[in-house]
Amino acid sequence: MEPAPAPFAISPDQPVPAEFDLLCENCGYSLVGLMSDRCPECGQPFDPAQLPLARVPWLYRKRLGKLSAHLQTTRLIILHPRVFARELCRPVRICASDAHAFRLRTIRITAIALIVPFMAGIYLQMPTGLPRGVWPALALVCALGWIATCVWLRLATDLPTFIWRGLPGKSDDLSPLHHYAAAPLALLLIPALLATAGVFLPDHHVFNASGQLAPVAWLAIALLLLPVAVLVWTIPLVIMKTATGCSPRRVWGLAGYLPLHWLIMTVLIVLAVSAIAFWVIMR
Predict the structure, then answer these.
(1) Minimal CA–CA distance to 120: which of 207, 184, 56, 185?
(2) Fewer CB within 10 Å, N- or C-terminus of the chain?
(3) Over the stretch 220-239, which tens digit does the pLDDT of each residue have?
(4) For residues 181 and 236, what is the distance between their CA atoms, to the nearest angstrom?
(5) pTM: predicted TM-score of the whole model, two decimal places
(6) How many whole angstroms separate alpha carbon 83 and alpha carbon 88?
(7) What CA–CA distances, in Å, run from 93 to 7, 69, 166?
(8) CA distance 5 to 10
């Protein structure tokens, strides 16, 4: 078995190691040194003169596995955003569809992370002896909530391409960066797991006598979400600054635009969900 790539130990200033040089995009077989233009493993044709793929683990998911590739890419972006941005600015192939697939996977994981604590809270707060038909309805509500969360996250992380322009000769190639900038959202799994565990604590720690969240629970939620929110806000700024070399004024412009963008998308989703709920109730 070939050793897995180790992207975190590689500097974009170094030559491309053989294991990253050229791999079959169909099966992940190494094409280094081959004299033909066809993969000997699966028969897929390739261009020996094409640029290598960027050293982003997600692009090697057929070789690493989707879970491992997603975790490694998320870790690279969160811990080394400047290294990641410089890597995508080298003369390498950057696939926009792969970047988009990474963002969608991150969004699905995040939506699950956000909906699970609410499902646990609903389960504990529901009285016993309910008719059987109630549970399928609750399952449908949770499924619709997950869909609405996915739509909200897609809108919130889908930034206009013009924001990423600025790198000479590669303004269009910067568009995948905003897909990868959504990586910190995956960290919501950690507070979601802690919140789900907290729901099962004795009621007086989480819920007050009226069944509402206690103040200490709200404080714990805020403290858990704050680091993720900071990373979701700052990672795009670091990536854009590194990739474009833009002025501090432009970085601060994006810093001010991001919260406004998120607020607008949140209002749109709340209005849409409210309109749908009103239509269902009035039928």
Answers:
(1) 207
(2) N
(3) 778 888 999 999 999 988 98
(4) 5
(5) 0.76
(6) 9
(7) 16, 17, 18
(8) 10
